[in-house]
């Protein structure tokens, strides 16, 4: 029995179950640390192809859940565009997902473009993400590391173009 306990303890010490992101980076960006494996989900991309979170293993994934009727969401779009422009050529996948139950793709795309977005937007109703990620209110943003772990979550609006948010994303990119 002692041998089994020793093996388990050694395994936990040598093979941590989560990421190694500095908690100070999360705190500076106003992100709640979660340290949990990211549940897989499916969505339909703007081209009509089904995608899932597992398609992006090895990349940093930013999930941003928003709605057209949400005033803070509208205010965040220019900041999200700055983040997208800064990281679009790196291993960062940006998934802004609208939870509007009645709006279709043309309305959501037009809305995002009107706010200055050059990135693609997704519809929650075209997948199963809300069952796993959205709890209440918008905006909600998740940061998933390259190993598929949720590093943290932000509930409510943030200045996504800030140095602290960029430092967090860079740290997630640098993780092995």
List the helices and strands and how they pair.
Layout: H1 2-14, H2 23-28, E1 32-37, E2 42-44, E3 50-52, E4 60-66, H3 71-87, E5 92-98, H4 105-114, E6 122-123, E7 140-144, E8 149-155, H5 163-174
Parallel strand pairs: 4-5, 5-6
Antiparallel strand pairs: 1-8, 2-3, 4-7, 7-8
Describe the protein.
It is built from five helices and eight strands; from the N terminus they run ααββββαβαβββα. With 176 residues, the chain is of the alpha/beta class. The chain has one domain (19-174): Glutaredoxin (3-Layer(aba) Sandwich), CATH 3.40.30. The longest helix is centred in the middle third of the chain and has 17 residues, at 71-87. Strands 1-8-7-4-5-6 form a six-stranded mixed beta sheet. A hairpin with a 4-residue loop joins strand 7 and strand 8 (149-155).
Quick tags:
about 180 residues, alpha/beta, Glutaredoxin, six-stranded mixed sheet, two-stranded antiparallel sheet, about 35% helix, disordered N terminus
| Named CATH topology | Glutaredoxin
The end-to-end span amounts to 34 Å
Secondary structure tally, helices? 5
Unreliable stretches (pLDDT < 50, length at least 5) are: 2-19
Number of domains: 1
CATH class: Alpha Beta
CATH superfamily: Glutaredoxin
Précis, in short:
By secondary structure, the chain is of the alpha/beta class.
